[in-house]
Amino acid sequence: MSPLTLRQPGPVAYYVFEALEPLDFLCHAFSTRRGGVSPLPDRALNLGYIEEDTPENVQYNRSQFLAAIGQGGAGLRTLHQVHSDQIHILNNEAAKTKPFLLATGGPADPQRVGEGDGLVTDRTGLLLGVQTADCLPILLIDPRRRAVANLHAGWRGTHRRIAAGGVRVLAQAYGSRSADLIAAIGPGIGACCYEVGGEVVEAFRREFSYAEDCLTPPNAAGRRHLDLATANRLQLTEAGVPSGQVLSAGRCTACEPEWFFSYRREGGRTGRLLAVVGLRPTDRP
């Protein structure tokens, strides 16, 4: 049973981790494809600035999504994602948007702050956004120091240890202790659907002692599947996050076309989901 809970206050549907909702200082959400105006197909909630959609549609969809999660006045911040291990700390000047940084083949994102695949902050009123269409969004929350991270982890980012990097950057920037962190791995392509080539298998074998725990046995054609959620869960626990504090959505974007966009299932012509996390403006104890 998935630990995600569906919320649909209107046309827009999104998921939250029920276990995180008691944290009154925290806002988080994982979008679905329901409730927008984009032709991907008709009335899809595409939240990424891509060639297949218009900026006007995306702006409207984002405003509807933020309103649905009760964060219409928050400052959304995103990245030009490049499957790296680069993580940005958003404080003061670093939180300013850079709308003229273009994604390859797509229009400018007015909420973009730079290039990379991770964002961290301890500022209230900011929403850190990661766009996905099979890759994993990984949220890190430090309830003690009141700091958060949002990470984009496909196989390249996972191989480059971006989840462990998020733990490290939170420690360096805010004094976060890995034992205090809660990690939430959102919807992404599951091992059921993520067949990978031999070069990926060998890359994981070279990098991780637990690689075989993240790979299925070879099928009749000798091909293997990669379990990104398990790979990142093990990476986080290796980095010191207690296993009981690593939540996983257990939802495969490729298996559920009624809820999620999937780059692999739809041959690259698909929308983008958005995972967000931020700190509400509450009084600190």
Folded structure, characterized:
With 285 residues, this protein is an alpha/beta fold. It has a single domain, classed as CNF1/YfiH-like putative cysteine hydrolases (4-Layer Sandwich), CATH 3.60.140.10. It is built from 5 helices and 16 strands. A 7-stranded mixed sheet has the order 1-2-3-16-9-5-7, with no helix packed on it. Strand 1 and strand 2 (14-17) form a beta hairpin. The model is unreliable at 100-104 (pLDDT under 50).
Q: In percent terms, what proportion of residues is strand?
A: 25-35%
Structural class call reads alpha/beta
Q: How many domains?
A: 1
Strand order of the largest sheet: 1-2-3-16-9-5-7
Number of helices: 5
Largest sheet: 7 strands, mixed
Helix content: 10-25%
User: What's the order of the H and E elements?
Assistant: EEEEHEEEEEEEHHEEHEHEE
Would you tell me the overall average pLDDT?
Answer: 94
N-to-C terminal Cα separation, in Å?
35 Å
Going by CATH, what is the homologous superfamily?
CNF1/YfiH-like putative cysteine hydrolases
What is the level 1 CATH name?
Alpha Beta
**Low-confidence blocks of residues:** 100-104
| Assigned CATH architecture | 4-Layer Sandwich
Kindly summarize this structure in a few lines.
This protein is α/β, with parallel strands linked by helices.
List its traits.
285 residues, alpha/beta, CNF1/YfiH-like putative cysteine hydrolases, 6-stranded mixed sheet, 19% helix, 26% strand
Layout of strands and helices, then pairs:
Elements: E1 4-7, E2 14-17, E3 26-31, E4 34-38, H1 55-68, E5 75-80, E6 87-89, E7 112-115, E8 118-121, E9 126-132, E10 136-142, E11 147-153, H2 155-159, H3 162-174, E12 182-185, E13 195-196, H4 198-207, E14 224-225, H5 228-238, E15 246-248, E16 273-279
